[in-house]
Structure formats: C-alpha cells, structure tokens
Design a protein that fits this description.
Length: 194
C-alpha cells in the first residue's frame, strides 16, 4: 500500500509534466512558456524608457564602428561611417525591437499563416496566394536588384536581421515565438520585399 501511495503521485506528476511540455491541439506547450529559465520571465525589459543610453554595436559583418544612441523614448539613432554598416545596423535594431512582427507579416503576405496558427489560417493563405503577393514581391525584388545601391542596402539589412536572429538563444526569443512554439527563420531579401 505504501508503494502505491508513492507511485500514483509520481505518475500524476510525470503526466502533468508531459502535458505541460507538449502541444495540445492548437494550444502551445504551456510549460515552456512558464519556465523560469526560458519562458516569458526572460522577456522583461531591463532598460528604463526614460533614460538615454549609448552603445557601440559589435556584430559580425560590420566594416567600421557603429554607434547607437537611444533617446529618452527608447528610439535608436544610428551613426555609421558607411551605408553598408548603416543598413546592417538598421536591420539588427529593427529585428531587436520587432522581429516577430516582421516575420509574422511575411508569413501573412506570403500566404503561410497556417504554418503558424493551423487550420484557422488556411482561408487567409488562400486569399493572399490568389492576390499574388509572392509574385508581386518577386517582381519588386528583381527591380530592386537592378540598382546596385538598393541591392547592397537590402542585403546588408538582411544580414543585420540574421545577425540578431543568430544572437538569440531559446531563452531570449521574443515572447510571441514562445507562445506559438516556433523559431525564427533566416531573413532573406525576399522577406523584405514581402
């Protein structure tokens, strides 16, 4: 009897742990979201929005020093010595503040929302695909690629976003990724066109 009193609570705890760690239909794994080491607790803002700060960006691919000044509203002001570094820094900083929003918009425009939200997104995806958003983005990208400055800006911007994505650990993923239980894809110029 004593053994049964120990086994039943252990089985309940293991079952509960399994349920929290895995998706249940469209419900993401709540345990991952609540984890004190990787969950939403890690997404708390540490910088006060009422203070000004300055930093030197240190990301692979920059050709020279890039300084970023954050004003009292938390808005970054970028000071770079060349266009490549300016666009790369812009991509990095935009991703730092808006990665999930940017990626979600590309999924929507590309008719891929169902990949994130399941069957609920199929009608939206069908509509977007019928509208020809991907074809329009492909044609825009061809036009942008004909101008060397635009092409350089687009590639540097994508490199900046990818530098930010590569700097993320599971712990530092934006909250929305944790809620929907997926990882960001590498950024491409096509995503910018979308």
């Amino acid at each position: 009897m004593k053994l049964i009193n120990k086994i039943i609570p252990m089985l309940i705890a293991l079952g509960f742990t399994y349920l929290l760690h895995n998706s249940l239909g469209t419900v993401p794994p709540i345990g991952k979201l609540l984890s004190p080491f990787h969950g939403f607790w890690q997404n708390a803002e540490s910088r006060s929005s009422l203070e000004t700060t300055e930093e030197v960006l240190n990301i692979d691919g920059l050709e020279d020093q890039v300084q970023v000044f954050y004003d009292e509203m938390g808005i970054p002001h970028v000071f770079a010595k060349n266009d490549h570094d300016l666009y790369m820094a812009q991509g990095y900083l935009t991703a730092k503040d808006r990665l999930w929003q940017m990626e979600f918009q590309t999924y929507f425009a590309g008719g891929r929302i169902a990949e994130l939200v399941g069957e609920k997104g199929i009608e939206s995806d069908k509509f977007q695909r019928r509208m020809g958003s991907v074809y329009g983005a492909e044609q825009s990208l061809i036009g942008m690629g004909e101008d060397e400055k635009s092409k350089t800006a687009l590639n540097a911007y994508s490199d900046g976003i990818n530098a930010y994505i590569q700097s993320l650990s599971e712990r530092k993923l934006p909250l929305e990724y944790k809620l929907l239980n997926y990882q960001p894809e590498p950024w491409t110029p096509m995503k910018s066109a979308l």
